[in-house]
Here is the input.
Amino acid sequence: MARSSASFVCQSCGAVHSKWSGKCEACGAWNSITEEAAAVPLGNGARKAQKGRAFALEDLKTDDDEPARRATGVGEFDRVCGGGLVPGSALLVGGDPGVGKSTLILQALAAYAKAGGASVYISGEEAMAQVRLRASRMGLSEAPVALGSATCVEDILTTLDKGKTPGIVAIDSIQTLWTGALEAAPGTIAQVRTSSFDLVRYAKSTGAALVLVGHVTKDGQIAGPKAVEHLVDAVLYFEGERGHQFRILRAVKNRFGPTDEIGVFEMTGQGLAEVANPSALFLGERDSVSPGTAVFAGIEGTRPLLVEVQALVADAGYGTPRRAVVGWDSGRLAMILAVLDSRGGVSLSTRDVYLNVAGGLKVGEPAADLAAAAALVSSFAGLPLPRDTVYFGEISLTGDVRPAPQAELRLKEAAKLGFSSAVVPQDTKTCGTGLKLNPVKDVGDLIAFAGATRGTSG
Here is the structure.
């Protein structure tokens, strides 16, 4: 009988190596390679290939109705999911430890159970007494949620098969699961992948909606293999800065809904509170009198969102100027600085530059270029921008300002929050919002606008 051999697997990317080494050559991670037992071949050699069974091929036409979604009752969570959870689907929620993943899932299951649905919460990290204490602090003790504490996948599946199939099953978290079919330790890539596959197969066969909770690595990726993200139907990231009470739930993969939708929550003493108007929340403590602040009218999914972009340009205290960015792409900032220098004559190469998106929000939209550039020019010149103006538009390497999609939604949101003017790319229409538009063709026009604001802000 063939003897089992050991393999060495990187826990960051899943690459398999013939021997142990301190650094994974595939992803560059250090001390991430662990030894895992390889599968034992059946019999004295490889199995003979069996003849396959033919299956029917069909066309793309369908008469099936879209399955009814299971709304949890937490509006922001259902929005990101696309209107609720689809029966038989698998959802993966990732986030930093302590950001509030367990709190969010417990609130969603409690709201679903109070509405008459059957929900099961399996905790692998906490004892049931700890979960009950958290539910008590959140005022959810009376919610009819079935609670369990287990880490063995076989035990979980046997328990779920004993009773009626629940509407939603939550597993917190996938890093603690293990299956007896493997000799690897819990948390390894093989265990996480196999355990997740067994649970997803259960959801597909029974129609239960499965919610898996997972931690993220230092790089912000789901801890474990990317294969877990391929197994599930939707991947949500729960983000938030430790210094802010705001939390953002963001969809990065969704087979049944939009992939760029976000939900906004506020962490309180009683759990997570939904934020119905995120723009007003992010702009609530805005101080427009100081130079270096500009309001960006952005779009997150289907929702318009206004957020303040703050910039500070200061003399370099050391030989090498510093660049610090929070909530925006540092490469994008370097490009904007180069365009301002080359096309606009605003040289910031010898200055320290700090850029921050207020409220802990992470902005990845190219349309934020114009707001960031306006904030930089304002801080450099020491001239505050008008307090009633919003900015959006993409800046190209040629210095031209390109149009941004869904301008009407952006302008309507700005008008609703009391803004009276907007700096926008050329050919942007007012869309009946009543806002005064200040079209700019290139960064030169933007610099002229920012320089003409002396004495007009307040």
